[in-house]
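Issue: ligand-bound run for adenosine-5'-diphosphate - logging full I/O for the record.

Environment: standard queue, default settings, no custom constraints.

Inputs:
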Amino acid sequence: MSSSSLETPMMQQYLAVKARHPDAIVFYRMGDFYEMFLDDAELAAPLLDIALTTRDRNKPDPVPMCGVPVHAADQHIKTLARLGHRVAICEQVEDARKAGGRRLVRREVVEVVTPGLVGDPTGIEAAREVVLAALASAGETGGVAGLAVLDATTGDFRATAARSEAALPDAIAQELERIAPRELLVARDELETLRAPLAARLPGVVVTGVEAACFEPREVPVAPEGFAPDGDDAAMRACAALLRYVHANQPFALENAPRLRRYALTDTMVVDAATRAHLELFESSEDGSRRGTLVEQIDRTTTPLGARRLARWLAYPLLDPEAIRARQDAVAHLADRDRLRARLRDATKGVRDLERLLARAARPGSVPRDLGQLRGALEALPGVVAALAASDDAWVDEGGARPAALAAPEPLPELAGLLAEALVDDPPVVPRGSRGANETGYIRAGYRADLDALRESAEKGREWIAGLEAQERERSGIATLKVRFHPVHGYSLEVPKSQLGRVPADYERKQTLANAERFTTGALREFESRVVGANERAAELERALFDELRAAVVARAEDVRRAADAVAGLDALASLAETARVRAWVRPEVDDTERLEVRGGRHPVVEAALERARRDGFVANDTLLDTGDAQILLLTGPNMSGKSTYLRQVALIALLAQVGSFVPAESARIGVVDRIFTRVGASDRLARGESTFMVEMRETADILRQATTRSLVILDEIGRGTSTFDGLAIAWAVAEHLHDTPALAARTLFATHYHELIDLALAKPRVRNAHFEARELAGEVVFLRRLVAGGASRSYGIQVARLAGLPRDVVTRAQEILANLERGELDAEGQPRLAHGARPRPRAQARAEGQLAFALSPAAGGPSRAERDVLDAVRGAAVERMTPLEALLELDRLRGLLAREDGEA
Ligand code: ADP
Ligand code: MG
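Outputs:
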């Protein structure tokens, strides 16, 4: 009977493990390798670019397999997780020697790595969060949806909620876009409903279905601080699902004292995905990298802690002027003090990635080097305290107090001291799971007397054995006798075949080689067992001491996290201060008005790029927007004149101001902006398979639904994606709507090449025209990049055509035609032709007019003809351009109309 290769005891064990983790690729530990079998092997081998082989080639059904060495496994595991797979790591959980080779070593899955739970944070991009999120949907009928978010590599744990009519509220979808989770947990029975909307908003996220019961907040396996088992609380329901998932896959990740922080989406500025992309805050539109982004420009942090904190601030600009000022105070303080700033930044550097070092040290698979690095980071904390304290002394002279935001971390001298006493200077890496191997020597001599005694005993034995060679050579007269060590067979005395005749009588034969024989003696055996025994006990003791140290770290995890938090804030503030100094930025005034005033504003990224390219300097420009007065700034002018740059520059300045940063300007006053909307009439979104115009209009529709009088709206060439007349009509209507709808009267910058739009300012009092100045210089158009009031000259294109060498006759004729066209743009009554017709009116206003009409009308049937005429005339009246006398005359005429009708009746 031929036994199939699947029937071996080992494969039986493997299949049992696999049965418990059917949806994961099982990494099955065998000695120094993790092996994958069967379907897992066939799936993983090409993804990891490793060879696919077979086990038991000669048996009837050879098992496909592949493997990776333990020391290189982490990379492979991360690769699979990044590709959306789960990896179950199955370790040998007992010492192979204890199993004695008689039976199979016990193995267990100790950790499941998933796209959102990457496990060991080594090799993870330092400046980014690794987010696992859980969504408790609002249900089909609407209600409140909850969102829980965890970065298991840092312990950052937060939750929020939003009300909505849809299963996936827009606010939550926007928040998901902002945090870009790697993996999102949703109830399995909602997978179908949610998959499409999630895929549309979050391409690339791995959506994992979990049982609906997981969302029950009662009886979660672990309840971190801040968690409340309230079943009616959507945020808590999301947390419950997340906690259960982490507990099932990486229970130790919750040992690290995460503390739940609740936050409200309305507490910070909304920056939607389109705006984040258009403004290139975190990713360049060219290649998705950090190059040419705002974050790259302002990130001068010295630690990953600070880099992540700064990115967080940039993603969540503040709304409360007090809170913004508190941050500014700290930035100003550091910007004014070069020595303090330099000292502080130097000190924070040593703290490195304290959060992730903590997460790593707390893992059961942590190695001595992890604790060594954590120790190094902890040892740097007093330096940070000292840097701040030194400046406290200096301020006594200056009479200033340290701003509250510059709080020093609380160092942990006992923990750092314990690790320093216990661990050698440079603790080794002992690869994952090789605890059974004889890796010793990382606990410092003098830390524990019993360990020292064991080591001394082993050392004495080794010394004796080392002396044995000379001793036995003399006793036997065999000059070529050698003491040998073999990892399996142990110590022996080796004698070449030619000398066997001289071997003393008390030698016992141990092993025969081709040219030599190996022997042992009673004394050698005794010393050998003393050395081996002492070594083994020492190793065991070291492991126990190591576990004690790790427990000591976990016990202080919360304090470590708090210190890391303080350093993150200091580093981010010092970075903003450094940027302010290096780039000569100024502190903006932030208030509660609906105004935005910038003198000498610059684009932070374009300015730096021009400098790097050693091109002409950036030309600074002013901005004034005010909902009550200059609400809409309409920028006209040809391509390349600087419109887009200017639009983004204004948005970036407002955003930076609310982050607490200084801004690239001579001075700035920013009335707090609740949302920034940036829309670009683009032509390069075809990759997504959607009509660009459709995307453009959908994004524009968002603005008209969501903007408030506190928003900042940036519209760059809206309408470009369709035909000229369509585009112009839409651009006009959108601008008009933003002007005429009181609830939507946001500060707006509108760039357009439709110069017909300048006429809007004639009809709409809060619209201002501006354009970028250009000059003709030595037969070429030179853009001066200087913003000036008024619309761009309409003959601008003709000017360019002339410069380009179009024949003089053609140019003259073009000018004639243009003049005709322009005359035609005003109608007989002097109205701008494009302004004609019924304007879209806000619903409230229309309703009010309806009521007014009803009150006026003699019969319940509605207004009479004369009344309708009067109403139309009132609506169409160009009041802004009437003199008082004209207005009186008009009023008189209207009264006449009504009187005539009354007379007729
Ligand atoms: P438009 O939107 O009018 O076509 P852009 O804003 O794209 O023009 O600007 C075109 C180029 O002009 C930019 O790539 C930039 O290098 C340069 N530029 C824009 N504004 C300025 C400025 N204020 N100072 C110096 N160069 C500028
Ligand atoms: Mg442009």
